[in-house]
Amino acid sequence: MFGFKSKNVDESTRQAAHAGSWYPSSEKKLRSNLESYLSTPSNTPTFSQQSLPSSLTPSAIISPHAGYSYSGPTAGATYTLGLKSRLLNPSLPPLRTIYVLHPSHHVYVPGIAISDCSTIRTPLGDLTVDNQKQKQIGEQLTSLGVSVQTMSSKTDASEHSSEMQYPLIKHLIGDLPITIVPIMIGSASQSSLIGTVLSPHIFSPSSFTVISSDFCHWGNRFQYTPFIDSKKISQSITELDGEGMTEIERVSPGGFAEYIKRTSNTICGRCPIECFLQAAAIRVGEGKECVIKFVRYEKSSEVEDSNDSSVSYAGGVCYI
């Protein structure tokens, strides 16, 4: 049952559990690293058929969530073309809410889970969670039969896919009165219902959305080794990821779901991505603009033999 329990100050704050390991805990060093990543140029994937829209507004991004030493350049280039560009446009309504749609790596979530915290701690300062919007979305989904759970601060803090987005967000928004709405999406079985509820929220003129996902996890340690007999494993991984990114650029939730079923590609944020595509498809069905463009792609390493491993990082921007 959806609801919020009373909690003390410590319980209401999501701690920066991965600071000092996945990214620097020092404010000075972290800001320096983030500025470096944010200056990373895009390297538009060759598969992409989209051009960067000049007349549309960045509304959402798909950003990786590995340790910054691996995913930082891809995340930085994506945030620069997405959130930073949106914040710097004076002709647009002020940004008030940032939704963070992220997967679950450690707990089973049959639908969605919402953080029990009202504050998110980062080495750069705190972010404020909009608990009212969380409650509203939770109640809307519950009324449609979608499972909605409330996470404890401990469960929330163990999940890196959300945390890796928070320092980048805080660095860019500074002290602006912008609230955060984190939503953990653990299943795509009801993606149509989730997308229907999310669409008016995330595509509001005063909203921005971050979808957190890495792409292919290849290697024995991930129990995913297609192309094992290929002499060009790394190229095959790129082509595999490119096929999925093409379905995303087409704003095709059905095509993306079929692609995941057929390939079993280990895209850890596949559920948030599919729910976002459902929300975007509603907008397209209403005759409104919605263009998704991937702007950077790279891998943690180039796989040369069966003993290697690799994780792919892809950055996409949604324009409306």
From TrEMBL:
Gene3D superfamilies: LigB-like. InterPro entries: MEMO1_fam. Coiled coil: none annotated. NCBIfam families: AmmeMemoSam_B. Belongs to the MEMO1 family. This is AmmeMemoRadiSam system protein B. It comes from Triparma strigata.
